Give the backbone structure.
Amino acid sequence: MIRRLCHPVWLLMAASGFSCATQSDFYLFASATRNPKSEIGRFAIGKSKSQNRKSKIELGWAETIKNRPGYQPINVAHRGARSLAPENTLAAARKAFELGADAWEVDVHPTRDGRLVVMHDDTLERTTNVKDVFPDRKPWYVGDFTLEEIRRLDAGSWFGKSDPFGQIKAGAVSVGEVKSYAGERVPTLEEVLRFTRDNRKLLDLEIKQLPRRYPDIVEKVVAAIEAEEMVERTAISCFDHTCVARIKSLNKKIMAGPISNDRLAEPAKYVKRIVRGDIWFPSGQVVGTGSLAFAGSNTVAGSYRANDLNLDDLKALRKAGVAVFVWTINEENVMRGLIEADVTGIVSDFPQRLAPLLR
């Protein structure tokens, strides 16, 4: 049995079309235990093996999603292959594509002079040497620096010092590779779009609107995508759900959708009708990768928290034409469970672990 907890403001939001991106009161919290084996067959609708993985990457997002061979999930490298290379750099994208990723995910912020650069944090401190180059400019917000200033920074050396995923220590990253990352630059959005286009891959672009807000970033991102002829190969995601409708109003051909780390009330209706999106980007916990039901797939250990793997929601999303990309999944057993659950895509820091499971 699923209990639905409805906040009165939800009805107002549904009528007005506004987002509940940061308001947990608007979410449905459901907990139920079920056996997914009995439902997966019903959920996996219209499978087609008419295309292999090599040919499908020649397509844009919409056609790639429609023509997934055997309905295998799309392999999306989170900030590139960030377990093996400095995140959100062309080096990370290059490594991801070498390892079999179909797409990569990046994050975008504007500079002080209105250019768009790829950086996850709203400050430059963690992934560049900004403290050494500009020691007196703390707190080093991206938006407080010009593009020329940001281009002076080293966005690669930190990776060798930090070894964020322990892959250098494990021997998965060679000494030569670590040295080659030194001097890697923060790329512009235009460079990322061109690199992705030239490699005939796909891009998942997250607009960063929280915690800092950038009033005209949606318009600038859409304009850049159009200028680089990447409308069909770029999908846009955002935690600020109001951005999704704005994107679709500017160019309805660009696929877009909300990111959430809390459960949504009737996600199919919310994504499609309220925010007018094509894709939902839930966290693994929202989808229920930590649930007893998920453990019932025989691919995930049974010691996870009892949150619900809601296959009914996934089926409703598919029926409504909404793709589901789950983030950030790094464990192979969870990847297998999501493959079995037939999600559209898996976003991972380890695309090298996912690729062999999709062959």
Residues 217-227 form the longest helix (11 residues).
